[in-house]
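Hello again, I could really use a second opinion on something today. I owe you a coffee for this, so here goes:
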Amino acid sequence: MAETIIRFGIIGCAEIARKVSRAIALASNATVTAIGSRSLDKATRFASANNFPPDAKIYGSYEAVLDDPDVDAVYLPLPTSLHIHWAVLAAQKKKHVLLGKPVALSAVEFDTIIEACESNGVQFMDGTMWMHHPRTAKMREFLSDKQHFGQLKSVHSCFTFGADRDFLVNDIRVKPDLDAHGALGDSGWYCIRSILWAVDYELPKTVIALRGPVFNEVGVILSCGASLSWEDGKVATFHCSFLSNLTMDVTAVGTKGTLHLHDFIIPFEEKEASFSAGSELAFNELVTGWVPLPSKHTIRTDLPQEALMVREFSRLVENIKAKGLNPEKKWPTISRKTQLLLDAVKASIERGFETVEVGN
């Protein structure tokens, strides 16, 4: 049976929409049907610059995309402050929702979005692309291997990049009315997600923000970190920043093995990605080296991770449209847990680095 082609509308012309529109074109079960911006001229230029299909509709408003009966699903690369309005409206219009991250300004806001999606029977997924790379599944196999990795004891995650002056002054991620979480919501979202992924989405008991966060002149976070603790003794730390060199590392340490990853969000190369794994590592007799050496594992893929994300999202939408299945709850559940921890870090900062207990 031929695949059902899911017809996407894109709401907004953010830079990340260029990458996702290419991903939609690469996915065999998706196509761009419409683009909407607050400016018709901007939408027209965006469609032309990104090689949209000639029959793609171009609208000068977001509402027009949601009102288009030919649109099955929407991608929303909007500022976080706009998510609750447009994601809820999209769900009410029966459009499946692929939403940029962070998903909301708070878990309370996100609950409103999810309630709208659930009550209207539409699929929700956030745009955390690395979750869909085949490397991610391969690394999960190692972390689940009790013989070679053992019991997880600690996770350490870092995502930083050195933003230029224009970014630090003009980007929406440094504007309190657009993306109030700043670096915590942007790069910190990925760090928190990587920690949750490593612990198989078990929420920690407590979170405490690290001292020394950096804010801009209007109070938006440019750099911060936190430590997380679980009741069974697991611990995790992360650091995120707009002010340091590009780094995206994850280290997961077990009782018998260690996993290292140096490009977890965007692989060094589009069609292959690697990680390092070592089991029962030790020093040699003269303590001049290690035995055994960690092994490098390389996973190749014909499609970039963002296209795999679109393909998986479209498959879930097809299951609903063509097979009458219910929306998959895995993805909104993971999004909500990530948002809960982001909220807890922010609360700890605001309370003078107090320990914050994580709710449900």
Summary: The first helix runs from residue 15 to 26. The chain has ten helices and 18 strands.
